[in-house]
Amino acid sequence: MSADSPPLRTEQPPFTGRTTKEWQAADAAHFLHPFTDHQALATKGVRVITRGEGVYVWDSDGQRILDAMSGLWCVNVGYGQEALIEAATQQMRTLPYYNAFFQTTTPAATALAERLAARTPAQFRHVFFCGSGSEANDTVIRLVRRYWDVMGQAQRKVIVSRLNAYHGSTMAAASLGGMAAMHAQGDLPIPGIVHIDQPHYWAHREGAAKDLGREEFGLLAAHWLEEKILAIGADKVAAFIGEPVQGAGGVIVPPSTYWPEIQRICDRHGILLVSDEVVCGFGRTGRWWGCEAFGSKPDLITFAKGVTSGYVPLGGVMVGERMARVLIEQGGEFEHGYTYSGHPVACAVGLANLDVIERQDLVTRVREDTGPYLAQQLAQLMEHPMVGEVQSCGLMAAVQLCRNVPLREAFAPEIAIGMVCRKHCFDNGLVMRAVGDRMIVAPPLVITRAQIDEMFGLVRQALDRTHAEAHAAGWLAR
Ligand SMILES: *Cc1c(COP(=O)(O)O)cnc(C)c1O
């Protein structure tokens, strides 16, 4: 705004004073969106989401949308949970902010640390708070390297991650991630981070996994880690990091053999294991933690998203006792921290969020009721002529689209069939995400069976419309 332009109206929630077109114009003029082609969005016009309730959101035209992505994998307790709203309001009124740097804390931060220590696997008693998943994974790099320094093995610096992993978007977190498009912008990865291939059975169907069963392939994929460790020299490798189930990579559920074998390899070479639970944590898989669902015993767990159900930003790193004891007793000051480490409003919301998850027994419900029900509905999609594979774990699921199912043949990449399908979803009142040709869902953990039925009704409609469009355009196999 230039000095002589009139002052903008002061607006407050619920922001009902402007039309969709007005919001779109203001947005195109000023808001650079994350992971967005700005020019393409400005041409099309942004969708303005104005409110939410339960598993639904509404846009500025009044359309109700079933949010099968929980916002961005985070709104696990659904929209409009009074307990979280109340906790934030009370904490803001009492003490909206205080830091934890100079030998101070707030009751909210300490209480959440205590609560998380009780809710995580037995090896965890300490937490380092930050503001997001990216910051949590940056913190991992600093913690891991500091630990090996203190241990007198400063040469152990290399962190092994995986292609198509997502660990966040800061320089370090994007480097840990294995997203080629991200690495291509900004000279990433930074030094000291290397990648092995992912345990993605479908993606390797014509290559490494050809003629192997899923479980055999899981062992093979785990051994890629050992090959990499031996190539680098085990005494130079600091840690391995992975998501129990790759989320943004397309809900890649690993074979059950994979994580136990990864654990054995890390143990054999004395390498730290980091479980990025930003998506999998807090019940998404039907266990509190993905590492519990898949059988690993990590030294570090990173979390964010589901810790507050996305109501306010919060992230953190659970630090296992093997590392915590060394850092506390021999490490002296750890030169790292964020202004918002242990933000009291975020921590108060985190506590209220844990209350809701526990009171409603959401983790058990996902494991024993809604998760299996979703899997059952999902399996029926295999009858669809365009579905090559379905995969799920708890309340996260993937539907692999393909051009020729018997031949497992992919659509030409320039068709971007996932984006075609996603558009039909949105037009139908469903948020489903496309990762290449893989459609994914991760609905709020409070979703009911009836709402799962509704979701699959919308998914089927979107698949049918995508199929009709593909047929008309001649994209399908003859
Ligand atoms: C979203 C995500 C992150 C990054 O979290 P931000 O809060 O966006 O920085 C890290 N790891 C995984 C697995 C994620 O899904």
Short description:
One of its GO terms (cellular component) is cytosol. With 478 residues, the chain is of the alpha/beta class.
What does the model show?
There is one protein chain. This protein is an alpha/beta fold and 478 residues long. The protein has two domains: 144 residues, Aspartate Aminotransferase, domain 1 (Alpha-Beta Complex), CATH 3.90.1150.10; 277 residues, Aspartate Aminotransferase, domain 2 (3-Layer(aba) Sandwich). The protein contains 16 helices and 15 strands. The chain has a seven-stranded mixed beta sheet, with helices on both faces. Strands 1-2-3-13 form a four-stranded mixed beta sheet. A four-stranded antiparallel beta sheet has the order 11-12-15-14, covered by helices on one side. Helix 1 packs antiparallel against helix 2, helix 5 runs parallel beside helix 13 and helix 14 runs parallel beside helix 16. The longest helix has 25 residues. The termini are far apart. The structure holds pyridoxal-5'-phosphate.
